[in-house]
Amino acid sequence: MATYAIGDIHGQIEALQTLIRKLNLSKEDHVIFLGDYVGRKSQWLAVLQYVESLKNVCRITKLWGNHEKMLYDHIERFKPRRWPASLLNRFDDCFHGTGGEFLQFEDPEQKYVSKFFKDMQYDILIETIKYSYVLCHALPKDVGYTPDDSIWGRLMQNENLDFTCDVAIDKHTLFHKYAGKIIVHGHTPVLLHYENNSNIAPNRLFKYKIQDVSFIDIDLGAKLFGRYPNANLCALRLEDQTPFYAA
Hints:
The protein has helices at residues 13-23, 44-53, 66-78, 87-95, 98-104, 107-116, 147-150, 171-177, 190-194; strands spanning 3-6, 30-33, 59-62, 123-127, 132-136, 155-157, 163-165, 182-185, 206-210, 213-217, 234-237, 242-245. By secondary structure, the chain is of the alpha/beta class.
């Protein structure tokens, strides 16, 4: 039995399928998706369908990403009404094409997307023999002042090993409740860490530590496949921290 975390996919169906084949999954395995399944002008509906199909292969857990939550909130907001044509451009602006694509789906496809979101969660705790993890899109749910803050928060270290975050967070919870744990997350492309850390390869996962909390960032910029040579998609096996890469 193995447990895997998979980072931001952003509609890259071929990369996801390649990565999954490398895992050689069985019924006893558990795959946890860290969110951001959807992406700009890409095959994100195929990604949702493929993720759902894996329920026939292994156990899966779907976590919220900020992209899905934005789309879902707007879907729910306008559900009682007919979709006005004026929303098309608005959705394109908000979701870089994802919302506009949703509006053009046939009714069964729209219902499928809405249903996909129904069993999502913000984070999950995983204990292995060697490690204690919390998996999330950006930060654990209770670190944000609201659950949605937790899927937007981007921690960055500077040269003095201080950190910044682009949303308000509960620092006490982060550095006390999660002391000694490993937070596995996506959301922040590894390339952003690479700007201040010349000793890492930008197409590989990034491990770092702030105070007594360890982090593993597995967002390898899959949304840039075809536009950036080091873009990748990563799965991390939690039992022994072995990474697997689509490319």
